[in-house]
Specification:
The protein has 123 residues and is an alpha+beta fold. It has 3 helices and 6 strands; from the N terminus they run βααββββαβ. Strand 3 (58-63) and strand 4 form a beta hairpin.
């Protein structure tokens, strides 16, 4: 079963980042790289990515057949998605074990959400 492990940025995590020295920031990044490598080796990793700054985001909508874009996220939010791991594992418990290994779980929280399986849908 596939699970998405979501890493959010929020005022608390950003404030913590600002207090970190270069070595601590390096260790956080290295922790993510090591987890990504371990999951790739175990065959559980589908994909993992960090996301660029939310200020680079664009909102896209279609109205009357016309594609419209606007700068930034649709709504002002104090929290935004900063990165994710998509894993394919045997159980929810395993997904939680992996989530607990993310560096962000040690200082904040990460979200684990099952991916909707539409393979049995009659479309």
């Amino acid at each position: 079963m596939k699970y998405l492990i979501l890493i959010h940025s929020n005022p608390r995590s950003r404030a913590l980042w600002e207090t970190m020295d270069d070595d601590q920031r390096y260790a956080l990044g290295k922790g993510h790289l090591e987890l990504t490598e371990a999951l790739a080796e175990s065959g559980e990793l589908v994909v993992s990515e960090g996301l660029a700054d939310v200020e680079l985001a664009r909102t896209v909508s279609v109205r009357g057949g016309e594609t419209l874009t606007s700068d930034g996220p649709f709504a002002e939010a104090k929290e935004h998605l900063a990165g994710f791991y998509l894993v394919d594992v045997e159980s929810y418990e395993r997904a939680v074990e992996i989530a607990a290994r993310t560096p962000d779980a040690a200082t904040g929280a990460v979200e684990v959400r099952p991916v909707l399986d539409m393979s049995a849908w009659d479309l």
